[in-house]
Fold each of these.
Amino acid sequence: MSAPRLFFLLGFPVGHSLSPAMFAAAFAAAGVDARYTALAVPPASFAERFARLREAGVEGFNLTLPHKQAVIPLLDGLDPLAARVGAVNTVMVRGGKAVGHNTDVAGFLRGLAAAGAPSPAGADALVLGAGGAARAVLAALAGAGAARVTIANRGEGRAAELAAWARGEFPGTGFVPAPLAAGQLPAGAAEARLCVQATSLGLRAHDPLPLDPALLPPGCFLYDLVYAPGGTAVVRAALALGRPAADGREMLLGQAAEGFTLWFGSPAPDEAMRGELKRVLG
Ligand code: NDP
C-alpha cells in the first residue's frame, strides 16, 4: 500500500482554520489518498520548517498570515499572477521544484459570483483595508475590469502605498486612497456598487464594525472577506438593513478549490467542500 500524499497549511496561528476540515471532505469525495495538516509555524523557524517538509516529500502547501510573502525567496519559481500580486498562498511541489501560486485572486472572484454580487466590470468599488488580502482583491477587481477602486484604510499611508502599487500594476483601473474613519463613508465611494471588507475586523466577537453599512450607497453589495458562524457582525448588520451582503466563506472555498485543481489536475468536489463549511459555519 502506498503512503498518503501530503499537504500542509503553514501559518501563525492556524488553530482557527477551516481548511483541514474542508480538504478532508474534498479528499474523501474525490477518493484520493491524501492528508492535509495545519501547522502553526512562527516566522523565525519558517524557512527551516519549510525546507524540512519539502525534504519529507510534501507535495503542496497553503500559506496564510504571516508567511504569504516570506515563502517567495524559498521557492524555485513563481506563477506570473503570484509574482504580480507579490504573495503566494498555494505551493505545488513537482519534480523537486516548488512553484508559488496565488489562488486568492481567483477565489475572490469565484466567491463574489457565488454570493450573487454584481460584476465589478466597469463599476466603482470600495475596498476597506490595505493588507495582504486587499492586494489580491485589487488584482482581482482590476482583472475583472473595475473602473475605479477607493482604498480606505485606518492607516492612510498604507492605503496610499497600496494605491501607488496598484496604479503601476493595473493601469486600466483608477485607484484612490482614502482614510477609513468611524461614522463616514470614505471620500470618493458615493457611486460604489461593491464594497469589499478586507480588514481583519470581525474575526473576534467584540470587534467594532469596520463601517456602518447604513452609510453605503443604496444597492451597494457588501462582500466581507472575513467569515464567521452565522455570518460576520457587519454582514448581519447589512442584511438587517435590507442591504445585499455575504461573508467570505465562498472565497475560502474558491481559493481552496483552485488549489485542489492545481495539486490534483482535476476539478475540486465543490459541493462536498461547501457542505463541510456549512456544517461548521451554519
Ligand atoms: P493584514 O494583517 O495584512 O491586514 C489587516 C488589515 O486590517 C489592515 O488594513 C489593517 O489596517 C486593518 N485593521 C486591523 N485592525 C483594525 C482596526 N481595529 N480598525 C481598522 N482597521 C483595522 O491581514 P490580511 O490582509 O492578510 O487579511 C485580512 C482579513 O482577510 C483576515 O482577517 C482574513 O480572515 C481575511 N481573509 C479571508 C480570506 C478568505 O478566503 N475568505 C483570504 C484571505 C484573507 P492598518 O493598516 O491600519 O493596520
Amino acid sequence: MIIVLKDGAQKKDVENLVDTLKTKGLDIHYSQGESTTIIGLIGDTTRVDPEAIAQLPAVGTVKRVSEPFKLANRKFHVGDTEVKVGASKIGGGTFGVIAGPCSVESERQLFEIAEKVKKSGACFLRGGAFKPRTSPYSFRGLKAEGIELLIAAKKQYKIPVVSELTSLDYIDLYQDVDIIQVGARNMQNFDMLLELGHSKKPVLLKRGLSSTIEELLMSAEYILAGGNANVILCERGIRTFETMTRNTLDISAVPVLKKITHLPVMIDPSHSGGRADIVPQLSKCAVVAGGDGLIVEVHNCPACALCDGAQSITPDTFDGLMTDIRKLCEMEGKRV
Ligand code: PEP
Ligand code: MN
C-alpha cells in the first residue's frame, strides 16, 4: 500500500499518520520527491482500511500495490535511483559503462585492459576472480590473488571495480571492491542476497538464466528489504531454443523494467550474445531501449583468453563502441 501525502502536509499530522501505521506493525518507507512525498507500507496491510487512512489530514491518496515487489516498485519511489561510487554513476540520467575482462588472468593482462578501457570512457573496471564455470575442469579464476590484482588496478588507474561474489565465504575479500556482482547462477541465492542487504555496498544483480522479470525484482527486494538501496539490475540474456547465440538478449525486459521499477537497468551484451561480432550492436540497443548502462567484456587478446574469449571485444572495438554510445546517449538526453 502507498500513501501519497498532501502538498504542504503539517509535520504533526504526518507524525500522527506514521504512529497510526506503526501501531499496526507496519514498516514505513519514505520517498521524498521535489513536490511529492510517498509513504510505502511494508508488511501485512490487510488490517489497514484505506478509506479510514484517507480521512487523516496529512493524506492525499491511498493505493493498494498489487505487485509482490514493493521496495523495488516505481510506485513506492519518486524518481529514478542513481547508484554512485565516487564520481562514477549509474542511473538517474547517467549511462554507466563497466568494461574489462571476464576473468583476471595476470597483472599484465588486467593493467593493459584497465588503462585502455578507462581511456575510452569506461567508468568501472570489471574482472572476475571467483568464476562460476559449467565445467569443473575450466579455469575457475585466480581467486584471492585475482581480487588483489583488481584492487591494484583500481589504485593504479583510479577506476572503481566490479567483481562477482560466488559464495558468502569470500565476502571479507571484497571490502575494497566497489560493486559486488551477483551472477545469473546466484540470483536466487537468498542467503547471499539477505547478507548483501545488510551493507550499503552497491550490488549488480544479474537476471537468472531462466528467471522471469518478476523473479529478478523479487531477488532485488531481498537486498532492498535489508536496507541496501544500491541495487542495479542486469539483463544478461535468457535461455531459449535459439542456438545461434549463447543466450537470447531479452531487450523488452529493459523498457518493461524501467516502467515498473526505479532501479537502474544495465545490459550485458557479452553473456547474452556470446559472440564478439554482435556485441557492439547489442550494446547500442541498450541506450535506445532506455537502459542505464552496459557491462561488457573486453580482452587485449581474445584468442588467448582463459575464459569467454569468443565474446570478448578488443580495446580498439570498445573505443569505437564508446564513440557510438556517446552519440546515442546525446540523442536520448543521457550523460555517459
Ligand atoms: C560474468 O559476468 O562474468 C558472468 C559469469 O555472468 P553471468 O552471471 O551473467 O553468466
Ligand atoms: Mn564471462
Amino acid sequence: MEKCVDLHLHTTASDGSETPANAVALANRLRLAAIAVTDHDTAAGIPEALAAGEHLGVEVIPGIEVSADYNGGEVHIVGLFIDPTSEALRRVTEWTRKDRDRRNRLIVEAMAADGFAIDMDTLTARHPGSVLGRPHIAEYLSEKGYASSVKGAFEKYLAEGCPYYRPKQLIPMEQAAACLRASGGIAVLAHPLQYGYDGKALEAFLSVGKACGCSALEAYYSGYTPAETEMLLSLAARLGLGISGGSDWHGSVKPHIQPGSGINGDLHIPYTVLEALRGRRP
Ligand code: AMP
Ligand code: ZN
Ligand code: FE
Ligand code: FE
C-alpha cells in the first residue's frame, strides 16, 4: 500500500476535538505515514504529538496555522517543519492570541447582552489550555440549543455578515511567512480556493503569496475535486510553488472530515509530497 500523509490537522491545542496524542493514535490506526499538527496560532500541542509519534512510529511534522491579511481579507498560512520554541514564532503567536482574547470577549459580551446564557469563564473552563476561537463558541451555542449544529451556529450568529461576527486583527502575509521561515519552517498557502478567488485573481493571490515568502500551496484539500487539484498543481508548477496538502481535520467539530482521506475518501496525499517539501526548507 502506498504511504500517505496529512499535513493539516487541528487538535485540542486550538479548535480540534481530540488531543494531540489521540490525533497521532488515530493517524496510526489509519496507517498514515506522517502527519503535521497545525493548530491555529499555537505550537503548544507539538511536544505531545512528537512524543506520541515516536512511541507509535508515526512521523510528526511540527506545524502551525496562522491567519494573515491579504487585500483586507483573512487568509491562512500553514507553517511546516517549524521549531516550536522559536522566539520569532512566540512573538507573533502571543500577539495573535491576545487579539483572539479581545475578539472572543467582544463576541461573548455582545451575545450575553442580548440574553444568551454565555460567558467567557465558562467557555475557558470547558477548554483548559486551548487557543479559543469561534468554533468553541459555536459548539457551546449548539449544545445549549441555540443552534442545531456547529455549522448552524456559524451560519446564524458567527460567520462574517452575522450579528455577532467580530473581525480579528491580522498581520500582513509577509510577516506571517517571515516568522514561519525565521522559525526554521516553510510557509504554505492554505486552502487557496476558500477565499473566493478564481482565474486571474487566484493567480495574483498566489503570486503575491510567493513574493511574500510562501514556498508552497495546498493543492490537496478536503472537498477539492480532482479538476480543482489538477488546476492548483499546474498553477503551482507555473508559479514555481511547491505542493502541500491536508484534510484540515478538526474531529467532531467538523465531523464530515477524516484525517488522511478527507470527505468521503476524496483525499490521497502521497508521501512524496512531504519529501519534496522537505527540500524547500530554508
Ligand atoms: P476563528 O479562527 O476563531 O475565526 O475561527 C475559524 C475557524 O472556524 C476555522 O477552523 C474555520 O474552518 C471554522 N469555520 C469558519 N466558518 C465556518 C462555518 N461556516 N462552519 C463551520 N466552521 C467554520
Ligand atoms: Zn480551525
Ligand atoms: Fe484554515
Ligand atoms: Fe486549518
